Amino acid sequence: MGPISYLVVEFPGARMTGEGLQELVRLTEQGTVRVLDLAFVMKGADGTVTALDISDIDGDGELDLMVFEGASSDLLGPDDLEEAGGALAADSAAAVLLFENTWAAPMVSALRRSGAELVAAGYVPHDQLTEALDLAEAAG
């Protein structure tokens, strides 16, 4: 099994168009990732976080999430969704995605056979990366 990652993607004003979903489907079909859980939450103006049951994200009448129907490992619980919602601005929605990085499974297996263990992983937020690159360019 490859490393497991999560993403919480905020949609300001709860405007979800479904555009990113097409890319997630492509990555899944290519075997790059395996979706373990996909959930949606909304944070109201009063700060209340609620789980959303959305099947037609972009409102075009087609069930956009049918491809992920049954993709629930039960690893994401109500506390996780509440925590994800807490990171949102008021009147926003978020997709909460738990996925396996299947592309990394062979490498992880090889490393484990040699006695290595993955002890940390993470992501650098895009804004921080851009800022660091801009600072490096200005200093260079």
Automatic annotation (TrEMBL):
Pfam family for this entry, one: DUF6325
Highest rank taxon of the organism: Bacteria
Name of the protein in question: DUF1269 domain-containing protein
